[in-house]
């Protein structure tokens, strides 16, 4: 019972993580770093900052839930 609830939470977090990553602004990721783009070092503001922080938080939660799922 607990294992299935944890699996459902993990699936929901995965879907949310995919959506948040797809909503982020294009061109400011790893590819832009190798291309020498000047926008790599700009400060994130507004929605970009919220999406960036949400990506980090959701990724950490997904990782922790995955570890808990292994133990349970």
Give an overview of the whole structure.
The chain has one domain. Helices cover 74% and strands 0% of the residues. The protein contains 3 helices and no strands. Helix 1 packs antiparallel against helix 3. The longest helix has 25 residues, at 47-71. The protein starts with a helix and ends with a helix.
What descriptors fit this protein?
72 residues; mainly alpha; 3 helices
Unreliable stretches (pLDDT < 50, length at least 5) are none
Helix-strand string: HHH
Q: Helix amount, in percent? A: over 70%
- The share of residues in extended strands comes to under 5%
- Largest sheet properties: none
Provide mean pLDDT, rounded: 86
Shape call = elongated
CA radius of gyration is 16 Å
Number of domains: 1
- Please tally the helical runs, counting DSSP H or I stretches of 4 or more residues: 3
Structural class: mainly alpha
Q: What is the β-strand count? A: 0
Q: What is shown here, in short?
A:
By secondary structure, the chain is an all-alpha fold.
């Amino acid at each position: 019972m607990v294992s299935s609830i944890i699996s459902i939470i993990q699936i929901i977090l995965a879907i949310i993580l995919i959506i948040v990553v797809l909503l982020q602004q294009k061109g400011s990721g790893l590819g832009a770093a190798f291309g020498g783009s000047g926008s790599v070092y700009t400060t994130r503001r507004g929605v970009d900052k919220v999406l960036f922080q949400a990506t980090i938080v959701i990724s950490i939660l997904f990782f922790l839930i995955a570890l808990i799922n292994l133990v349970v």
